[in-house]
Amino acid sequence: MRGEPIEAVKVGVQSLVSGLRQDPYALESVYLSLITFDREAKVLCPLTSLEDFQMPLLECPETGPTHLGEALKSLCGSLDRELIRSTAERKGDWRPLLFIMTDGKPADIAVYNEWSAKTRTKGFATIIACAAGAHAKEEPLRKVADHVVTLDTMNSSTFGSFFKFVSDTVTSGAVSMGATANLPLPPPPQEVHVVI
Amino acid sequence: MSSSEHQESKAAANPEIPVQEAPPVPLAENAAPVVVAEPAPEVVVPVTEVVVPVAEVVVPEAVPVVPPLSPAVRVKLNERLPNASVGKPYSQNLNGLFGENSKHIVELSLNLPADSGLEFDAPNANLHGTPTTSGEKQIALTFRVGNQAAQTHTLALTVNPDPSSLWKNLPSDANGAFAKPDTAKAFLATPHLNAIVASLRGRSHAHEGKYREDDFGLKYIEATGWHILISADGAGYAKFSRKGSQLACQTAVAEITEKLGSPENPLDLALAKLGTDAEPGELETLRKLSFNVLMRAAYEGVTLINKQAKESQATLRDFATTFICVIARKLTDRWFIASFAVGDGGAGAVLEDGSVLTLTAPDSGDFAGQTVFLTMPQVFADSEKLLARAQAVFCPNFKFLAAMSDGITDPIFQNDATFASDAGWEKFRQQLAAVINPEALAPGMEDALLDWLNFPSPGNHDDRTLLIAAPATTQP
After folding, report:
1. Which burial class, exposed, middle or buried, applies to B254 when counting CB atoms under 10 A from its CB (0-12, 13-18, 19+)?
2. Shortest Cα–Cα distance, B267 to chain A (Å)
3. Chain B, 378-407: which have a CB under 8 Å from a chain A CB?
4. Each residue's pLDDT tens digit, B212-231
């Protein structure tokens, strides 16, 4: 992803963050982590409170393989290190939410197959994958995601809608739920197509 | 003394600052380059990234160049300050922006908006204060490198709003499906004890005009002397859980009243046969007899909820609720207390020596907010686990007993270990004592309790329901 799309993602993440900062519950409870992936996965920002979060520099190469499997592997490692689970002495974090955006398809198939399965055992309240643009493949994303959405175009307007949807999902995430239940999704905006 | 005078005297006292060799050259801020001869010192200019200012970027090409400064000073400038928050003290030393080269920076000054709540302590390069307004702030930063001309950059500072200023309190729709008042309270006096209860819609629901999902049941059965206390917490994700919690409470109260309404019931008959010292085996029998009553009452609730779900063309899951139920009866020389609980929240009794007798076992998962609901089929599927949800105890007397939703246990006790500790309950008692006397309850205290339920606690904004009962004899 480069050019206008990556700019639009930046704007989208920034508006997601400013939007969440206007929600008092989110401001006190949301932590964000950003991982980018191309040939390699990079943790741009480990889990950071919304209060302290600063937008890191998003850089993507012009061409190169999409190593989503590596990204999931990196994610699982981060989760094991950073996420607090409940014990008798300490109340844990809320269940995490995962949003994956890609404009391509996973190129590291074997790694992807292994780590998409592992990701699904990590206790996410929901995993939403977004296939953005004409070249994105939604089918492989079903392996990891509870919900796959597609965006026809990759401009600031469609990304804006997608991040609004992400924001709505995040703000509805801090609720009591059953141990195995999945978070019901807020209604997606018009530009975001939920793949059934 | 002006700040520039101060800076100069400081510079004179500090031999490390390489200001003497470079002649001062007028330099317009971010102006077009002046002619170059020698390699220039690297100085940072703001990067005009459209939305996101970028940290730690050195762009030597774009720098207005000056005659040689010796030794060459490399300055890196981080243009984004760590975030601040309205109402929270902030202190940031700006020397840190320049890394190890801060010693070459002189005449550092900031142009702060008058109403920012922040001040700049120039001699110490310290930006400090308590921010008063939120938003993305742009602050002009002016300084000189050595004796070069002054340059001005823009610093970005995010000031978070104070969460408490953002909460809205929107009334719920009184005419909506399964509408429920945003608060509820009650006082109950019996020959044996006094009880109060208050239930308050949480801030997270008030913010969106949603309903209170908690509910409670409080009743005295005159014929047999049983007291019933129930707290139920509708699941946040379930759209009709306010009705689920209400049905669970109402049905259980009705069921228990029916089962324990006359002295001829198995539990009261067994209690009547007790000697002065109950054998452990007898207590186990009593626990099972109590279980039969309370589990049936809970199950009846699920049956009615199921019926309601069908009528509403919804699922059982849409009505998910927890269920914390305590029954207590004064015998001639002691109290018998039994409980049955599914889900988080909890109940306990503080004894006269200050120790706590917890009446519920922890029922939470790996993450916050994860628990078990009465409406889950697996709850009634495993009879052994189901039976373990019931407890029964004797105690000679108690100071007070309490049943509550997780809106109370999360902020007050915080974890399962504290909930099971005497110290945790003593702290809870002290917090209550600021507004009521939990050991000597009187009419009107339910109002004070309802007010108290609104206490602030970062991250804890769920509905809160608290029932407290204290033996009537301890009243002054």
Report:
1. middle
2. 33
3. 406
4. 999 999 999 999 999 999 99
Beta carbons of B373 and A174 less than 8 Å apart:
no
DSSP B307: H
Residue bearing tokens 């602030």: B456
Q: Write out the H or E segment, with its range, that includes residue B21.
A: none
More confident residue, A92 or B305: B305
Exposure pattern of B49-84 as b/e (b: 16+ CB <10 Å)? eeebbbbebeeeeebbbbebbeeebbbbbbbbbebb
Measured distance between the N- and C-terminal CA atoms of chain B, rounded to whole angstroms: 68
Look up the pTM and report it.
0.83
B194 and A CB contact within 8 Å: no
pLDDT at position A175 is 64
Tens of pLDDT, residue by residue over B230-248, are: 999 999 889 999 999 999 9
Q: What is the arithmetic mean of pLDDT over A135-147?
A: 92
Q: What is the pLDDT of residues B405-456, one digit of tens each?
A: 999 999 999 999 999 999 999 999 999 999 999 999 999 999 999 999 999 9
Q: What is the dihedral of CA B282, B288, B291, B293, to 10 degrees?
A: -80
Whole-number Å distance between alpha carbons of A68 and A138? 13
Q: Which amino acid is at A47?
A: L
Q: Are B415 and A90 a contacting pair at CB < 8 A?
A: yes
Is residue A105 a contact partner of residue A138, using CB atoms and an 8 Å limit? Answer: no
For chain A, what percent of residues have pLDDT higher than 90?
Answer: 43
**Measured CA distances, B28 to B22, B46, B108, B300 (Å):** 17, 15, 17, 82
**Chain A nearest-CA residue for B375:** A178
Beta strands in B386-461 (DSSP E): 390-395, 398-404
Distance (Å, whole) CA A49 – CA B459: 12
Q: Is B35 on the interface with A (CB under 8 A)?
A: no
A–B CB contacts, 8 A cutoff, strictly below: 130
**Average pLDDT score over chain B:** 84
Look at residue B121 and tell me whether its pLDDT is greater than 90: yes
d(CA B243, CA B305): 8
B7: pLDDT strictly greater than 90:
no
Contact B367 A176 (CB under 8 A): no
